[in-house]
Amino acid sequence: MAIANVSSPAANILVIIRNDAGAQIDTETIVLNGSGHTSFVLSTQYPATANTRGTIEFGTPAGAEISIFGIRSPPALTFTTLPPLAEQCRAVPRFPSTG
Fold first, then answer.
1. Residue 86: its pLDDT value, please?
2. Is the torsion defined by CA of 36, 39, 44, 49 positive or negative?
3. Strand, helix or coil at 92?
4. Is pLDDT above 60 for 97?
5. Where are the domains of the chain?
6. CA–CA distance from 20 to each of 5, 15, 27, 63, 96 (Å)?
7. Nearest 10 degrees: CA dihedral of 44, 69, 5, 27?
8. 3-state DSSP call for residue 60?
9. What is the pLDDT of residues 38-88, one digit of tens each?
């Protein structure tokens, strides 16, 4: 996953992770400076997502703009992007089980 704050002021981005049943399994706030960015492997940053399916929500703070990019790389190394679902200023990519 890669997340960028495309706004000038710093942004506190709420992260909510849910399993396939919709139950919340993790939460965090990522702080990004203005025009800042970060990237990570989902299962490393959030171990609760390893070998499971579900969604991850990135809450866009009021007055801010964020950009999110997800890449899926299963063991067969067939790369694909994770499509976001926009819902009231939230990007909700689905993460598949990495089996």
1. 60
2. positive
3. coil
4. no
5. 2-95
6. 28, 16, 16, 31, 10
7. -40
8. coil
9. 999 988 999 999 888 888 899 888 889 998 888 877 777 777 777 666 654
